[in-house]
Amino acid sequence: MVSNLMKFVVSHKKIPILHVNNMCCSKMRASLQRLKSHVPLGRNYSSLPGLIGNDIKSLHSVINPPIAKIRNIGIMAHIDAGKTTTTERILYYSGYTRSLGDVDDGDTVTDFMAQERERGITIQSAAVTFDWKGYRVNLIDTPGHVDFTLEVERCLRVLDGAVAVFDASAGVEAQTLTVWRQADKHRIPRICFLNKMDKTGASFKYAVESIREKLKAKPLLLQLPLGEGKAFKGVVDVVNKEKLLWNPNSDDGKDFVRNPLLEMSDPELLKETTEARNALIEQVADLDDEFADLVLGEFSENFDLLPAEKLQTAIRRVTLAQTAVPVLCGSALKNKGVQPLLDAVTVYLPSPEERNYEFLERISRLLLPFADQHIEIPSLTAGNIALTVGLKHTATGDTIASSKSSALAAARRAETEGGKKHRRNNEAERLLLAGVEIPEPVFFCTIEPPSVAKQPDLDYVLKCLQREDPSLKVKLDADSGQTVLCGMGELHIEIIHDRIKREYGLETYLGPLQVAYRETILNAVRATDTLDRTLGDKRHLVTVELEVKPVETASVMPVIEYAGSVSEDLPTASQEAIENGIHSACLQGPLLGSPVQDVAVAVHSLVIHPGTSTTMISACVSRCIQKALKKADKQVLEPLMKLEVTVTRDYLSLVLADLAQRRGTIQEIQTRQENKIITGFVPLAEIMGYSTVLRTLTSGSATFALELSNYEAMNPQDQTVLLGRRSGLTQVL
Ligand SMILES: Nc1nc2c(ncn2[C@@H]2O[C@H](COP(=O)(O)OP(=O)(O)OP(=O)(O)O)[C@@H](O)[C@H]2O)c(=O)[nH]1
């Protein structure tokens, strides 16, 4: 539950800054309630959670391990790759739980929201802390569904390393690419775990190839599988040249043997492993000069003499430098391969001191998370993850700083590290850069309380939900006075609706789901406007002349330019007023009232009568822009989604025919074992409710992933139809 997390590292000097992922009210509330009833669903937890309510001092030694022995890691992947199942195994083998949870039975530790258990998917991240062979591991299970990418992004900000879980029969899937890119952005060292090796169609080679090709990463094969599909029975440890076999009669996978590969008993496997080890050594030497010197100097004649620890140290260096990724394999469901994965986490992923944080702050109440249970603790050392409660005015992604100068320093750093191209207009915007990037919502619908008297309750609930989930936007429709919910996808809005009912006991009604369009202009237009108003004995008089013109930015932030005569001696307050006016006018385009993108505004002249209020300046500029936008040739832009459908050959033509009817364009069709993978683009408006359609078309055998690609101009006929519908005749899309 990263929403409840904050991360900080001790500095004995001044307290500069603290990154906070804000309190997730609902999950916290749910978990505090559960704390009262203690252990949920009869699951059996071992020592740490059992300490709740006991002597806090005895916990102190447990919670303050040496920093080098701490691993803050996340688990990330495409939906259904097996993150939650892998996490459950990890918790079991580490002794955190005493029975194995099952996603399909709905009794896992980390998926504890009702919606998660019912749907078998992860929606909010969950954090758990456990020990493995003398290391303290803080682990975060993140959601895989594309509607919840923001949740993944905010997890990544507090992680030092990550395990990327793949379905070995599918290799790199659409959402893996997205999270991989996010992890690249936050420079997080990773390990790959090829899960589901037991599944029919699982292919180690194929999955490794897809990591190489699609993620453009350099896989380091630290293991080889022993059998694939039904024949999968264990793994070969390439670094140590050992065979790890799980006892087929053990039903929890705890029982496995690790034996050196011998010429006598395994000649073929030994040969294959030696080749793989030699290749690994060469690959690492290519990436790490220190290791290359060692290998060439002492071991060039015989790589077999190279001690495993030296190879591991070099693998660790390249993993931390992110020039390559270790790859391991297994089957979480069949309880094979998880213990070596845990070993790899401790050996190859960084400790917090190996990452670059300098943040610290004292907080009055600190809690240590154990999924949905928490223990109050007096203090915490560097690199740990903890929760804090009671921050009333923060929202997810906020950065809390002890002073404005440290906040600005953080913003500057975020700007440099994020490689931001746009120069921000004012200080407030620059400060925002330190937070997470919030994707623009693509869907919206109206939401109504059961009665007018309940509107304040609904407003309060939505405010709470927005604080923990900034990808949820709420606005008021100026014409109808209705509250409008804007979200990342159908599922996102559905879950919000469900949570309002379950967690706050408020029954609400949703209007039809609609697509969030945008607008742009096709030609440059000039306009002038004057606002002359006398309020009391004060005269407010502004005259502005400006031009709106098309530019390519793919952004709803207008580019603002000033003529030399205007910018000269322009007071900061007036400049901010002008920019507020421009921004507010561009939020509501003349065609559909949607945000206007790809525009630049040039302010050619501006005359302000002394004493005119900034509100009047904003109002005049805003009105003038709206006038100009109305005069321009206009174009509706619609969200275009990147679609990936995995379908068996028998249904391929049916799915393609259906996509053609949805104004879809096909980019390529690949073959992946028995399946065809269709990738292409389709307008969002045409793909609503697609999961039901696809299920019906393919008798439930196909899966798909959807991601916003860009906003694209609608063709004139479709635009006319849309505008006709929106002109008040019907609202259906
Ligand atoms: N055959 C096989 N199935 C697995 C394995 N691991 C997980 N599964 C199944 O795959 C499905 C998805 O597993 P989860 O653990 O919920 O996957 P997830 O990645 O956490 O999914 P989200 O939380 O929704 O993103 C479940 O039906 C699991 O039983 C595995 O190793 N082999």
TrEMBL record:
SMART domains: EFG_C, EFG_IV. Residues 68-353 form the Tr-type G domain. It comes from the Eukaryota. Pfam families: EFG_C, EFG_III, EFG_IV, GTP_EFTU. GTP binds at residues 77-84, 141-145, 195-198. NCBIfam families: small_GTP. HAMAP family: mEF_G_2 (MF_03059). Mitochondrial GTPase that mediates the disassembly of ribosomes from messenger RNA at the termination of mitochondrial protein biosynthesis. Acts in collaboration with MRRF. GTP hydrolysis follows the ribosome disassembly and probably occurs on the ribosome large subunit. Not involved in the GTP-dependent ribosomal translocation step during translation elongation. This is Ribosome-releasing factor 2, mitochondrial. It comes from Felis catus.
